[in-house]
Amino acid sequence: MAEKATLQAVKKALEKSKKRNFVEAVDISINLKDIDLSVPKNRIVDDVILPNGRGRAIKICVIGGSELVQKAKSVADRVLTADELGKIADDKKEAKKMAAQFDYFIAEASLMPVVGKRLGIVLAPRGKMPRPIQPGADPKPIIENLRKTVTVRSKDHKTFHAPVGTAAMTPEQIAENIDMILKRLTTKLERGTMNIGSVFVKTTMGPAERIM
After folding, report:
1. Residue 130 belongs to a domain with what CATH number?
2. Which residues have a Cβ under 8 Å from the Cβ of 30 and sit 6 or more positions away?
3. Mean pLDDT over residues 10-28, rounded?
4. 128-142: average pLDDT
5. Which structural domain, as residue segments, surrounds residue 183?
6. Total of domains in the chain
7. How far apart are CA 108 and CA 82, in angstroms?
8. Distance from C-alpha of 6 to C-alpha of 40, rounded to nearest angstrom
């Protein structure tokens, strides 16, 4: 069950958002305080599995050997062999297009150095370096979790954003997603909630409502 303050803020944000001819995303804005993010260990990078998913299709690309590619064909949005990876990496335009097209990448552990060398320049700045998977492992549970995952990343800024759903979801679903992110965030911060200055929720084009 969502926290009362979270649910009330989400309801207000949805009510105040004008009707659009598209489904708006819902994001939270988190403002940290009393923390030095110029120190790398203080920065937040965390994958959070949302209880109600993202409310939209999350696209996943798998890179691996023939066995992994075969297993991933029915569950991933795209699968690439090492040879196919090389061809894409040689075409900068195609590499950038692929980086923008997929939300997450999974790569066989043995191929991680190759992926880093060939595609790191495109994937790393976007925070999309592949999650490694061991040879012989089943990619299905990993992919299923990633389809419900949001990556919370502060970098070196005290204010950062995270998607928590869409306006097509119920307020309760969105609020539960937000509470999950905030719960995880407090475990990563040295002083927990004391390091959180404020949190706001808003639709893509709607006004922001304060949660805390």
Report:
1. 3.40.50.790
2. 154, 159, 160, 161, 162, 185, 196, 198, 199
3. 93
4. 94
5. 4-55+149-210
6. 2
7. 10
8. 30
